[in-house]
Amino acid sequence: MHRTGELYGHFETLEQQKESAALGMWIFLVTEVLFFGGLFLTYTINRHAFGAAFGAGSNTLDIKLGGFNTVVLIMSSLTMAMAVWSAQVGKKQLVSIFLIATLGLGTVFLGVKVIEYKQKFDHHLIPGHDFDIRYRSEHPAAADDPKEIAVEKEEVEKTFAVDPDSNAHGQLYFSLYFGMTGLHALHMIVGAGLLIWLIKGSLAGRFTPQYNTPVEIVGLYWHFVDIVWIYLFPLLYLIDRHR
Amino acid sequence: MAGTGITVWAAFQNFGKFNIVIALGIATIKATLVVLYFMHARYSPKRTQLVIVCSVFWLAIMLTLTLADYDTRPHEGPLASANTCYRAPSFGGYCSG
Questions:
Q1: Of the candidates A34, A168, A241, which has its C-beta nearest B96's C-beta?
Q2: d(CA B31, nearest CA chain A) in Å
Q3: Is the reported ipTM for this assembly greater than 0.85?
Q4: Which is deepest, A63, A96, A123, A182, by most CB within 10 Å?
């Protein structure tokens, strides 16, 4: 059974029905804000306590991939907003095109994330038995720039001079990194599933100016996930970049 | 998009203590623009706007009160010092140094 936007008995007008749906989504997003807020709080307290190790951990992240992903995600928010607009003015073909573009950009984001996670495995930066924040600068990959490696080595030495337990505290940083970006990626995967459902609906021509609530609601969710990344990017990637 | 460029640029500059303030400031401006225009908060009913403001307000309560507590509670020496135990040793905890 598919809902087509008829008025349900407990609402007075279609407008009220639509506003109620959006309000419900907003209330869900409030709980999400506090959910992620707890993680940001944990991050802040630990970063305050172990600044040196967090800085060193942050500097091992690839800023080019992170920056690229930020642009990709903001672009996907734009295409999502365009999809909502197209649905509201009744341009049925455009809705499908913009939804597919959003899904594509979301997939690119997740793909880049996979590359980043793989690098962390290669560089012994997964919290646990083999974790070693020194590993990367001592076993540089052939492709890495030797100058960059030298700078990195010096930085890591400085970090250990300030905080001899940098490997323990670095693991704290990476636990938070994987926890926060992993939870964000999980939200992206859920969002991608919702987008596939929307694309199916829009290809069947189900969304009209009278009925486009699903597009609007998923749009709200998608933008929220974008906002989380807007904060994650500077906090995780850009802590200690100035030299 | 321009905001992202500015964020990255600002991160490489040295504003001393203010780097984090600037980075979060730019992030907040970007987030506000997304909420106001992409999420149509500007054109939403007052009821929805109230919910959004409440969410920020509750987040602020959680952050300020917890951080104030951490900041003012006496610690037994610096958190990162040698011989810090991360759990009670009797429970197989890990002590540094």
A1: A168
A2: 6
A3: no
A4: A96
